[in-house]
Amino acid sequence: MNRRLAIERESGATSQRYRIPGQGGIRLSFLPGERITVSSQDGHQCCELLALDGNGLVHAAIDPPGARLACLAVAQLHRAGEASQALRKRFDEWRIDPALMTGGVQLPGEALPWTLTLPADADPLILVLLAPGEDMTVDGQCPATELDVEHWRHASAGTGLPPPLASCRAEIRIPHSSARVYEVRAGEWIQVIDVAGKQCSDFIAFDKAALAHGEELTLDSTATRTLAGTALPQPGLYSRVTDIHQQPMLELVQDTVGRHDSFLLACTPKYYEDSGYFGHISCTENFNRELAPFGIRSRSGWPALNLFFNTQVEPCGSLTQDEPWSRPGDYVLLRATRDLLCASSACPDDIDPANGWCPTDIHIRLYGAEQHFPRAIASRVTPEELPRMTQQTAFHDRTSALTKRFIEYRGYWVPEAFEGWGARAEYLACRERVAVMDLSPLRKFEVVGPDAESLLQYALTRNVRRLAVGEIVYSAACHETGGMLDDGTLFRMSEQGFRWICGAPYNGIWLRELAAQRGARVSIRESSAQLHNLAIQGPRSRELLETLIWNAESQPSVAGLRWFHFMIGRLGGPEGIPLMVSRTGYTGELGFEVWCHPKHAEAVWDAIWEAGKPYGLAPLGFAALDMLRIEAGLIFADHEFCPQINPFEAGIGFTVPLKTKEEDFMGRNALASQSPEGRHKLVGLRLSGAEVPTHGDLVYQGRFPVGVVTSATQSPLLGCPIALCRLAPQFTAPGTRLEVGRLDGHQKRLAAEVAILPFHDPERLRVRS
């Protein structure tokens, strides 16, 4: 039995964890003898608490030390706007009068974490926990941020399952080492939940109409893999699962794990017999027994979707397995595309790591076809946190009206390309006219306090002390080894306030750890949910924005805004929507970024879209952006840099002023100890022919590799494939002839020549124009 289950069974309690988003809240039933802990991720977000007795009246006995009267939630409820509407809607769902919040208490951020145990002789309570706050202005630096809640409950107090996604049509419990059969209609939703964690569940389905005619038409692995373009089982799930006629039977809609197997056999009697366990029950036998009443013939092994089963294919082709990644409450959400007869198991395997050595239950929830759930997959910033499902940006309604081609990037859905344009047309619009792109997935962190400057001076490679208010600097952030954690832009908002805009959500945790180590008096709060942004890029971007952005006399105009500076303005006039406009971009063209609160996003998009028509404005997707940034020699995380690559090797050595920055910074000693002559360098490659190499292809001089391709594209500008390449210093001279290896690196070579970066506008005159 795994240790977690043993502890819970011995204590008679289970732990459930919740995340409260900034400006959001949760409602919990709190029983005598139970314990709750509330903590702030950044140490500065307050919690407002309302306790109600069985009659729905305010329970005033809970009065934590340092508590104040609740005020922020009351203010949020009375304001106009989406955050207020969303919170009022939650109170309606809870059937609680929002006016009762005047009797609540506030726990300031410095009072958290806070733990409350309800005495065994107390009456049950209803707790409302909120992470309240005002909408952050574009020049403000005090966002409402997340709270974490851990609730230790009596094991008998509930199912231990996550809350339903919506009203359920049916719930089916599958006890460990068994299987169940159930029917779903076309358009209905199937949620398969791992109750205790690390429990595999095999899934099979049959076309009901075909069964009525005596045909067992089921999920087909060969057809599904062929359409998906994969030859072997992968540690994930296919977005669509088809029958042998290549017609979809199921769609994957949500997945909180991301680590599964697809279409190996459900465990069989032969597997256990070959392992010496004769007579051991198997999923195949459980399926055969449950399906027999439906006239379905028994099989010696059932091809199945192996949910939560952690296998991987080794380079040699063999399969290995380990304990599942799934945790209590993790789930997969599927949608039926036709009427189906489904069977799910709770796998009985207890002889290897497949179920963490301890088989447990699986739970099925069925939802009606009238429900709607967005597509989402889970990510985690740290291994121990709750999953974060893919989000839509505030501009999603506008971009999704122009395209259905979205990809996941840093926890958000972003357009890959737009119908009616396509990557090449979008690229040309940016190079020749003007284009607009949603870059809201960028992470924003507000770093404020008397030690903000000294902390960032240590955390980042650039000389932060030289940064003036209103100015921006591009910098690397390095580990002690000199390897890059991230790159980003730092905005100086005030003398003691900065905004770090980067790619990785882990930056906030890393900065807070540094601050704690150094005893810095500083707050580091993520404002990504309060600040979304559009990139307006291209030679006519300034003309376009000049017609839209109003500025006060104390602020520079769009026309006068210098490269890597920002201004605070308004859309259309002095009473318009507040905006921050920065002269920054990721295309190598003259360009700007426009930052606004999400509640204003659609109005900002509409104004830019309408005003841009005379300028030939086009939308810009990530496929076109990749072409633009490679031509401009701009780097991308996990391609040109990673924690094993330093800024010099990534091509941004100019961000590391070893000679002019006297103070210490993270990674300085490691970077200073490396010989410049021995470092690999980022260079460009121009290739002959039409074939575009891929990330990771080795670059050869003769028989042996001397570098690696980090990014590549077909360049419309040069009319040939180009690549960014990290190369041994002996071969970096412009004009050096090399080859990119394909297949095994020897049987196929692509001729290449070293080129100066950037390919586009080598003097960077256009971006500075």
TrEMBL record:
GO terms for molecular function: methyltransferase activity; transaminase activity. Keywords: Aminotransferase, Methyltransferase, Transferase. Residues 395-659 form the GCVT N-terminal domain. It holds the Pfam family GCV_T_C. Gene3D superfamilies: Probable tRNA modification gtpase trme, domain 1. Residues 681-761 form the Aminomethyltransferase C-terminal domain. GO terms for biological process: methylation. InterPro entries: DUF1989, GcvT/YgfZ/DmdA, GcvT/YgfZ_C, GcvT_C, GCVT_N, TrmE/GcvT-like. Residues 173-341 form the DUF1989 domain. This is Aminomethyltransferase.
